[in-house]
Design a protein that fits this description.
By secondary structure, the chain is an all-alpha fold. The protein has one domain: Up-down Bundle (Growth Hormone, Chain: A), CATH 1.20.1250. The protein contains 17 helices and no strands.
Length: 408
């Protein structure tokens, strides 16, 4: 009989995972929010802000790519809690140090280190909660994590307006260190502890490549998220430059664009997560949100109304469209056995974050050929096509029993 006790959704592991993702998103998006102010204070010329911002974003996302491998493997070998403690300690200290940078090189190194730390939070949290909650409530639990977590971008934007950019980094690092205290009361996943007693390989990343079906599922999980980080990494991060090209009235702040898009993301995540529970399907809901994303890309790039209010509304709509982030990570966790689950749930979102590197490089090339608007459009449409192809490679996982291992 399915468990109907919804109080488990507000258990300590779910609440602490949600707060952890809140701090994670605050710190992850803070660079996009304070990009212009921080770079100008370091002496970067106005004309170089876009190129330098792309460079630092690539550095940060490369750190996420590396960290995804480290923390994912560690989560399956040593436990979910080891990642939750280690990752937040690393990125908290890196962000505090970020407030003291005086050169671009220092900024780059610390964004790389922070990226490594930030890579572990979401995957470990989703893995832990997915294994603790009953199958019929799993989607609600991960939806709560994402919805609460995404508000970190909103808080980051408000604080960036109240304080200097250095203080914003200090606050993010301080919040992370405070969260370590709350983590003491979180218990380890029972599924992991049982799996640990069995004689199976745990956290072997290369197992994703030993079977064709497993490899295709792994790649499918990664590429269904491609439109999400195209929208965040290009359209939202560089919204001031797009607004200028689109002749939007008034001054568009990257922090406000991030805030409105992440409010939309929270709305979308809530809608997609709840819808997948009601419909009883992950994949059907993904198709709907991918089509919404495509529509909102066109709206963002070709909105005929030139007021700042409508531009921010376009950012909100874009966030709603890509609001299948929680569903995307949940699917990655549900595809694979307990001995590879943390590796999958941690590497998949960070590999897709890492695609910001080739996406921004492709955008850089295409905007030189076709201009910033049509260059962005080409990249965006390609991400949607790839995501739809990838969707065919993954399993429908709604209600799946997760108590199994991957065996070669």
């Amino acid at each position: 009989m399915e468990q109907k006790n919804y109080s488990v959704l507000f258990s300590v592991p779910v609440i602490v995972a949600a707060l952890g993702y809140f701090v994670d998103i605050y710190d992850l998006l803070l660079f996009s929010i304070v990009r212009r102010d921080s770079l100008l204070s370091l002496g970067i010329a106005e004309s170089e802000l876009l190129a330098t911002g792309e460079y630092l974003l690539r550095i940060q996302m490369t750190g996420l790519l590396v960290g995804g491998l480290i923390w994912g493997i560690m989560g399956d070998k040593l436990g979910r809690l080891s990642v939750l403690f280690g990752s937040i300690l690393l990125y908290s200290l890196a962000n505090i140090a970020n407030g003291f940078v005086t050169s671009l090189d220092q900024y780059a190194w610390l964004r790389f280190i922070a990226g490594i730390g930030l890579a572990g939070e979401l995957g470990a949290g989703v893995t832990l909660v997915s294994e603790i909650l009953p199958a019929n409530l799993r989607g609600y639990g991960t939806t709560i994590i994402a919805t609460v977590g995404l508000m970190g971008a909103v808080v980051g934007n408000f604080l960036s307006k109240m304080f200097e950019w250095q203080i914003s980094y200090f606050i993010g690092g301080g919040l992370g260190l405070l969260l370590l205290i709350a983590r003491v009361s979180v218990f380890e996943s029972g599924m992991f502890l049982k799996s640990k007693e069995k004689k199976v390989q745990r956290g072997n990343f290369f197992q994703f490549f030993t079977k064709r079906d497993r490899f295709l599922k792994f790649m499918g999980c990664i590429f269904i998220g491609l439109p999400i980080w195209y929208a965040i990494g290009i359209l939202i991060t560089f919204s001031p430059e797009f607004a200028k090209e689109l002749n939007i009235e008034g001054t568009i702040g990257a922090g406000d664009a991030v805030m409105f898009s992440y409010i939309g993301l929270a709305v979308g995540d809530m809608a997609s997560g709840v819808s997948s529970q009601i419909v009883g399907s992950r994949k059907k809901v993904l198709k709907i949100f991918m089509l919404l994303t495509l529509a909102f890309i066109f709206y963002y790039l070709f909105n005929p109304v030139k007021s700042s209010g409508f531009f921010y509304f376009a950012c909100f709509c874009l966030g709603v469209g890509i609001g299948y982030w929680a569903l995307f990570v949940t699917i990655a966790a549900e595809q694979f056995g307990t001995n590879l689950r943390s590796t999958a749930a941690t590497t998949v979102p960070n590999f897709i974050r890492g695609t910001v590197v080739p996406l921004t490089l492709g955008f850089k090339y295409l905007r030189a050929e076709f201009g910033i608007i049509y260059g962005a459009l080409i990249v965006g449409v390609l991400t949607i096509i790839i995501a739809f192809i990838a969707l065919q490679l993954i399993d429908e996982t709604y209600g799946r029993d997760l108590n199994f291992e991957e065996i070669d």
